[in-house]
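Backbones bend. Our protein:
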Amino acid sequence: MDEKRAKELLAAERERVEAELAAVRGEGREEGDAKRPAGDFNNEGLYEDELAAGREQDLVRRLERLERAEERLVAGTYGLSVKSGEPIPDGRLEAEPLAELTVDEEPGGSKRW
């Protein structure tokens, strides 16, 4: 994959992840659109809080993976498996710009690709 396309993919992914992370954290909300008042501990509220916390953790981990991908791009190793050094197919990178392994190297990977 050429560097220009890789930069485009990673920039788009950064924008998407940061926007979703801001939404989960409630950034940019109007004051009247605030979360439930403190002490409102019904079962639905607790579930929503746990779901949001889990989603936030997932997004933070994705942001960390994005930063590693950006570092690989600068180092000239983006698109190569971090395990074997084998090229990751462009189609895989288009679908998952943060891929660090080939499909075969992924846990449960398939030889079909």
In short: The chain has three helices and no strands. The chain has a mean pLDDT of 85.
